[in-house]
Amino acid sequence: MPANSPVYAFLGPGGTFTEAALLQVPGALQATRVPASNVNAALEMVRGGSADAAMVPIENSVEGGVTATLDAIATGHELRIVREVLVPISFVLAARPGARLADVRQVSTHGHAWAQCRGWMDSNIPHAEYVPGSSTAASAVGLLAEDCPYDAAICAPLVARENPGLAVLAENIGDNTGAVTRFILVSRPGPLPERTGADKTTVVVPLPEDRPGALMEILDQFASRGVNLSRIESRPTGQYLGHYFFSIDADGHAEEARVADALAGLHRISPGIRFLGSYARADRQATPVPEHTSDAAFSAAGSWVRSILGAASAAGENGSAASPTA
Description:
With 326 residues, this protein is an alpha/beta fold. It folds into three domains: 7-89 and 181-190, 3-Layer(aba) Sandwich (D-Maltodextrin-Binding Protein, domain 2), CATH 3.40.190.10; 92-171, Periplasmic binding protein-like II (D-Maltodextrin-Binding Protein, domain 2); 192-302, ACT domain (Alpha-Beta Plaits, 2-Layer Sandwich). The chain is 31% helix and 27% strand. The chain contains nine helices and 15 strands. The strands form three sheets. Strands 1, 2, 3, 4, 5 and 11 form a six-stranded mixed sheet that branches. Helix 1 links the parallel strand 1 and strand 2.
């Protein structure tokens, strides 16, 4: 491994969907990859400098936002999202060799995986009890321990294939065959990824005051500038009941005038806003921009206002010059 090889943390152990997402990053296959036991641990490796970046899940097409990630990046030393990756999700039910489906009483997996297979579980082994796991791969590998307290695990097909001590009891057990999980690569603050025309900007905005219209003021900063939101979720800050922040994905890049103006507006009404990055969309779908919110329109409007102020200033100076002095 080269001495300057980057170090990437990811939600482990090896074989998770998160590692599959990381391997989509150019050069990650040759880089040092370090599994972390949970999202917080992965991000703390980046904050502490022992990893250059971390790949973590942030959103699932079935279950929505991954709360552990939303909360972890909203607090602590600031981090930046530099890339997103989409991974199609499929699940198998794995157990020790010789086990039968009828023998399964307890099943372990990550909470999001359980939610995506709940229908299949209810139809096929409704008596099975859910045992929370830190990741799908960790639950599967846990079956190899002699004192494992559960009988089966929901995991990725790759994990079952790569561990000869596991047998697949059922395949394609997800309730939604089109399920996709979105992952983000997070690093310490630095230069923003280049603007591509198909970008996202992610921010965390604390609700400045719990009163009627407070959320509308936040949303209006985007709407009045023609900025579309692709995701918005509220999360408790943990300070006290009723105190929330909003995790928001907006279409566009901070270098765009309309997005920059929206961010400035958000800062005016909620100075605690946290900018989490502008980065290329994984699907590469270009963001349509109405003509009146284009960079050219913002530039022309700014020039017009400056011409008014310049004319007014010139008129004032001429008036002063023509006035008699006392």
